[in-house]
Amino acid sequence: MDSTTTKSVLEVMHLSAGYGEVLILNDVCLQVAEGEMVAVIGPNGAGKSTLMKANVGLVRPRSGRVLFMGEDIAGLPPEQVVARGICYVPQADNVFPSLTVQENLEMGAYLVRRGLQERLDRAFALFPELAARRRERAGRLSGGQRQMLALARAVVLEPRLLLLDEPSAGLAPRMVELVFAKVREINAAGVPVLMVEQNAREALKLAHRAYVLAMGQNRLEGPADELLTSEEVARVYLGE
Ligand SMILES: Nc1ncnc2c1ncn2[C@@H]1O[C@H](COP(=O)(O)OP(=O)(O)OP(=O)(O)O)[C@@H](O)[C@H]1O
Ligand SMILES: [Mg+2]
Fold it and tell me: Residues near 236 by Cβ (< 8 Å), separated by ≥ 6?
């Protein structure tokens, strides 16, 4: 993609990052444009979660840049990343189990000073199954419903960019479909999405473009439908 003609929301440039002495990400580049849904697929341990964390300040980049709306946010503390409108939904433990559904949404929106009720109403309209259970503790929800709640918390924040780390992890196929349908709906409303997934086939069906990450490096990139039908991707990454 030519960044001079397409407006980039997120531009990761030559990013390297790791833990202590160990380098996990090595020279990773990717872009997310206005309105786009971009998937990063790759095997276990490829560095997908590390990439997400480096984008939001939870892992400090060793080198490279992370441009959000043209501003370099690499190395900013997470609260400043959030304040710029980037919402990150982690891979696990992404709701407060002892709080109710409604309290979870209110906690997610603690930075929001005005219009909270309208935002809650919009989130409940998108997730009616949560509205029906708003007084229940999140810990009593099924895995799929908890994932819906994590997405609903993001919706309440009205993010300018949504980062999702494996929203389908551990879910039954029917639940995966439902969660992905919600992600599609959120994106269709104009929110750019960067989604990391091990469920490569489903993620490629959903995304506009995708990157294949392996051993901390970009291996392939392209339109998601092309990667879906690529023999190389099928053989190496879809296990066929
Ligand atoms: N906090 C940490 N400290 C040290 N090493 C870590 C830490 N977190 C992850 N790693 C290592 O970094 C590598 C990449 O991990 P990461 O979680 O980014 O991979 P992933 O692609 O998200 O994997 P998965 O598909 O299992 O979620 C792995 O070798 C992992 O053991
Ligand atoms: Mg991960």
Answer: none
Model-level pTM greater than 0.85? yes
- For ligand 1, say whether the CB of 102 is within 6 Å of any of its atoms: no
Domain 8-93+159-236 has CATH 3.40.50.620: no
pLDDT for 114 beyond 50 = yes
- Strands 209-214 and 161-165 turn out to be unpaired
What are 128-137's pLDDT values in tens digits?
A: 999 999 999 9
Q: Which of 24, 44, 62, 194 to mutate to test the pocket of ligand 1 (most atoms within 8 A of CB)?
A: 24
For residues 168 and 176, is the Cβ–Cβ distance under 8 A?
Answer: yes
For 39-53, the pLDDT digits (tens) are 999 888 999 999 999
Q: What percent of the chain has pLDDT over 90?
A: 75
State if residue 46 touches ligand 1 by the CB under 6 angstroms criterion: yes
Q: Give the sheet arrangement for strand 61-68, strand by strand.
A: 22-33, 8-19, 61-68, 71-72
Q: Which amino acid is at 27?
A: D
